[in-house]
Amino acid sequence: MRPNPLLADTDLPLDERGRLICRTDLRVDGLDDVWGSGDCTAVPDLTNPGAYCSPSAQHAVRQAKALGDNVVAVLRGFEPSDYSHRHNGSVASLGLYKGVAQVYGVKIKGFPAWWLHRTYHMSKVPTTRRKVQVLTDWTIALLFKRDVTSLWSMHEPSREFAAIAKGEPPAGRG
Ligand SMILES: Cc1cc2nc3c(=O)[nH]c(=O)nc-3n(C[C@H](O)[C@H](O)[C@H](O)COP(=O)(O)OP(=O)(O)OC[C@H]3O[C@@H](n4cnc5c(N)ncnc54)[C@H](O)[C@@H]3O)c2cc1C
């Protein structure tokens, strides 16, 4: 993980890794009207003194909500609250039907960890409609072999954009 290099073009306070230095209430260090959250920030982890919140969705989604609440609080003349969340654990899938997980200190591996990984992510998919779409897709995928996916856009993310900007036909998906 590394913060967006765009930050280096600002005059905001950054740490040695290029992360935006924030306070525990998610305001940028030394500034009262600038806020930060998520992967690009260094927010002190109140549950682990001396450390910073890890670059994970677990923190990013909670910080986003806390940041929104704090902005509203300040606009209404109240003090912002400190952000604090104890890391619940990690889950990861390793290919098909295998995974590893450590949840609340309990280590799990193999199929149960893979299932936990899938179930956890399903619980985070927003809206019922989207949940049904993803669940249907996963269920259908059980009946077939692995999908083949073109990865060119990961290696050359701006290729198509550059072609269109030059007035050329889209570069195609080879
Ligand atoms: C492969 C992978 C697996 C992961 N698995 C997990 C996991 O299992 N559990 C977990 O908790 N976390 C996981 N993470 C980490 C998690 O995805 C991030 O911590 C989280 O998405 C950070 O949220 P964010 O809002 O800070 O940044 P992002 O989600 O990266 O959002 C930043 C947004 O800003 C946009 N942007 C960038 N530059 C500009 C610009 N110049 N102008 C306008 N918009 C811009 C981007 O397009 C993007 O939409 C994983 C990450 C990766 C890459």
Describe the 3D structure.
- By secondary structure, the protein is α+β, with helices and mostly antiparallel strands.
- Among the domains are: 5-75, 3-Layer(bba) Sandwich (FAD/NAD(P)-binding domain); 89-126, no CATH class.
- It has five helices and five strands; from the N terminus they run ββαβββαααα.
- The mean pLDDT is 92.
- Flavin-adenine dinucleotide is lined by residues 4, 6, 38-39, 55-58, 60.
Strand order of the largest sheet: 3-4-5
Helical stretch count? 5
- CATH-level-4 superfamily name of the domain at 5-75: FAD/NAD(P)-binding domain
What average pLDDT do the residues reach?
92
How large a portion of the residues is in β-strands, by DSSP E?
5-15%
CATH overall fold name of the domain at 5-75: FAD/NAD(P)-binding domain
Through-space gap between termini: 28 Å
- Strand segment count: 5
Query: Can you tell me the residue ranges where pLDDT is under 50 for at least 5 consecutive residues?
Result: none
The sequence of SSEs as H and E is EEHEEEHHHH
Short description:
With 174 residues, this protein is α+β, with helices and mostly antiparallel strands.
How are the secondary structure elements laid out?
Blueprint: E1 20-21, E2 41-42, H1 57-75, E3 89-93, E4 99-103, E5 106-109, H2 111-124, H3 128-141, H4 152-155, H5 159-165
Parallel strand pairs: 1-2
Antiparallel strand pairs: 3-4, 4-5
Bound molecules: flavin-adenine dinucleotide.
